[in-house]
Amino acid sequence: MVSVRASPRNYSTIVMFTALSPQRGCQICREVLEEYQIVANSWRFSSAYANSELYFASVDFDEGSEVNSSF
Question: Is the pTM here over 0.85, yes or no?
Fold first, then answer.
């Protein structure tokens, strides 16, 4: 696993932050996450991915509290 905070940073990372828990009340999060996953998977299975330094990640507010506290 690669740390996105490690040096050198010769790559790009796109991170989608969500709040999927019903208590959070983010109704659009699930819809947007589905679209984000489509884009990420399209990139992953494209021919350009083999030589890519572009990574997609998603972090949910309640499941990734240690990540959220870093920002």
Answer: no
Cα Rg, the chain, nearest whole Å: 14
Count of alpha carbons within 13 Å of 52, Cβ hemisphere only? 14
Quick check: helix, strand or coil at residue 36?
Answer: helix
Quote the CA–CA distance of 34 and 45 in Å, as a whole number: 17
Which CA distances in Å does 35 have to 13, 28, 45, 56? 17, 11, 16, 13
The b/e string for 26-59 (b: 16+ C-beta within 10 A; e otherwise) is: beebeeebeebeeebeeeeeeeeeeeeeeebebe
Q: Which residues of the chain have pLDDT under 70?
A: 1-5, 64-71
